């Protein structure tokens, strides 16, 4: 539990620095956030020795969403760098198994809410379906498919108004309502 408490302190520090106007540059922010990104794939045998590991694992979804919102306090450059750090974690064949689909889904939506392009969010959300197929647990697969279907039916990308836009490839994005997931 001490590791999780330390991670919360790092998150609080990062958010407070941005809130107080002490903007960190992208490299510094990502370096300080790296232990938080790697938290979910520490040696599982060590983690399961904690009596409260399952509680901590369940909090990861909200934890990563808060990290993304903390990055937004530091500016678009930090958001872009953090997004790339998340993508490296998600795409690494040795690490991606440790990322729960729900934590990825909520992180993708959090990035979208703070202005990352809709195309990126939709592509990443669709790729989660392939991630779910890799699970050997039938209940897990069914539960994740249910969440994906619910996401498509509720269509948060269509219904939420974006707070601001972040450009990833140098193309400025226009303000306005986003299109539906389809």
Please provide a written account of the structure:
By secondary structure, the protein is mostly helical. The protein has one domain. It has helices at residues 2-19, 26-37, 44-47, 53-72, 76-91, 101-113, 118-133, 138-154, 156-159. Helix 1 runs parallel beside helix 4 (53-72). Residues 171-182 have low confidence and may be disordered.
Layout of helices and strands:
Layout: H1 2-19, H2 26-37, H3 44-47, H4 53-72, H5 76-91, H6 101-113, H7 118-133, H8 138-154, H9 156-159
Feature tags:
182 residues, mainly alpha, 9 helices, 0% strand, disordered C terminus
Number of helices: 9
- Rg, Cα atoms, Å: 16 Å
What structural category arises from helix and sheet content?
mainly alpha
- When the domains are counted, the total is 1
Indicate the percent of residues in helices. 55-70%
Distance between the amino and carboxyl termini: 41 Å
SSE string: HHHHHHHHH
Mean of pLDDT: 76
Sheet with the most strands, sense and barrel status: none
Strand fraction equals: under 5%
CA-based shape: globular
Parts with pLDDT < 50 across at least 5 consecutive residues:
171-182
Strand segment count: 0
């Amino acid at each position: 539990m001490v590791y999780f408490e330390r991670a919360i302190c790092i998150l609080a520090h990062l958010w407070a620095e941005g809130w107080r106007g002490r903007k960190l540059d992208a490299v510094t922010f990502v370096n300080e956030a790296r232990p938080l990104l790697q938290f979910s794939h520490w040696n599982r045998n060590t983690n399961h020795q904690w009596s409260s590991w399952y509680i901590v694992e369940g909090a990861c979804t909200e934890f990563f969403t808060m990290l993304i919102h903390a990055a937004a306090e530091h500016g678009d450059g930090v958001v872009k760098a953090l997004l790339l750090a998340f993508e490296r974690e998600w795409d690494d064949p040795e690490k991606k198994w440790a990322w729960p689909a729900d934590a990825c889904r909520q992180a993708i939506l959090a990035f979208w809410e703070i202005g990352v392009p809709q195309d990126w969010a939709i592509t990443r959300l669709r790729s989660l379906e392939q991630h779910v197929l890799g699970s050997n647990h039938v209940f897990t697969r069914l539960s994740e498919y249910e969440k994906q279907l619910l996401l498509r039916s509720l269509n948060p990308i269509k219904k939420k108004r974006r707070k601001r836009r972040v450009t990833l490839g140098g193309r400025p994005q226009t303000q306005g309502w986003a299109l539906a997931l389809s």
